[in-house]
Amino acid sequence: MQFLGLAADASEAGDHTFASLISSVQTDEARHAQQGGPSLKILIANGHKEEAQKLVDVSIWRAWKLFYGLLHTVRT
């Protein structure tokens, strides 16, 4: 969602090239976000449950660290 706001701000400021670039990045990231579930299903279907679980665990840990780091930065 932050990409949409950034693109809108850039467009409002008259920088249509940057707005277009950011919109493109947003759609690319949205596509990447949709690949996780199907990838996990393939891993599990092929007998790699432990690897699938590790990917979920690592992803949650990374998201938490990013969130916590952002929260810490905003509070200081």
Written overview of the protein:
The chain is mainly α and 76 residues long. It contains four helices and no strands. The chain has helices at residues 2-12, 16-33, 36-45, 49-75. Helix 1 (2-12) runs antiparallel to helix 2 (16-33) and helix 3 (36-45) packs antiparallel against helix 4 (49-75). The protein is flat and about 50 Å long.
Task: Itemize the secondary structure elements and their pairings.
Layout: H1 2-12, H2 16-33, H3 36-45, H4 49-75
Helix pairs in contact: 1-2, 3-4
- The coarse overall form would be flat
* Main pleated-sheet profile: none
Structural class: mainly alpha
The helix fraction, in percent, is over 70%
Rounded to an integer, what's the Rg over CA atoms?
A: 17 Å
Beta-strand portion reads: under 5%
Total strand count, please? 0
Count the DSSP helices: 4
Tell me briefly what this model is:
This protein is mainly α and 76 residues long.
Keywords:
76 residues; mainly alpha; 87% helix; flat
